[in-house]
Amino acid sequence: SHFRLDAVQTALGQEVPLLLYADGEYLYLDVSGRKSKLPFGDMADGLPDEETPELKEADFSWLELSEEGDLHVITGELDTAQAGELMKKLLGSGWMSSPDSLDQTEEGPGMAFQAKALNITVKVGQDSLVREMTASLSMAYATELPAGSNVESITQTEVTFDISVTMQVQNPGAPVTVTPPEDLDAYEDLSLI
């Protein structure tokens, strides 16, 4: 099936346009005019075989239901252990650490990410269709850096970062037409490098 995402990523105060398009054969990525593509089979090889995990009420530390105009608003924070399990399913166990040890994955020592918090807000219309979803993820990883000016002395440092994503659904329930980028032949095939 076809998929297209047009987005703007903000990092360090700079807005970076991003286009992601998949046609079943290739995954196309355009970041600020740098265009590349990768055969979809190569991408699928790195993805977990499991289905997208289903979240249940018990997976959350807290949940709240409120109203905003004619929308139902569900807000909650995923339990830290459940957030880690969800990220393991999405990224693979080789990338995620245990909640107790930042530099240890299930596959042994090495750089690993640790989920610190995952907050989710979903806005649902009276017709039970999602209008907007926001996810805020706080993660950390450990890295080794020189200790002060002595480059021979190494210290392990925890680096934390936050990712926030908001998706808005326009015309929910209406038929969708996916339009490919006009210049697909201009994308560099990364599998040939």
Supply the key terms.
193 residues, mainly beta, 5-stranded mixed sheet, 5-stranded antiparallel sheet
Describe this structure in words.
The structure is a single chain. By secondary structure, the protein is mainly beta. It has 2 helices and 12 strands, in the order E-E-E-E-H-E-E-H-E-E-E-E-E-E. The strands form 3 sheets. Strands 1-2-3-4-12 form a 5-stranded mixed beta sheet. Strand 2 and strand 3 form a beta hairpin.
Annotation, overall tally of beta strands: 12
Characterize the largest beta sheet: strand count, sense, and whether it forms a barrel: 5 strands, mixed
Q: Give the strand order of the largest sheet, numbering strands 1, 2, ... along the chain.
A: 1-2-3-4-12
Shape label: flat
- Nearest-angstrom radius of gyration? 20 Å
Q: How large is the share of residues in beta strands?
A: over 45%
Element string (H = helix, E = strand): EEEEHEEHEEEEEE
SS class: mainly beta
| Quaternary structure annotation | single chain
Helical run tally:
2
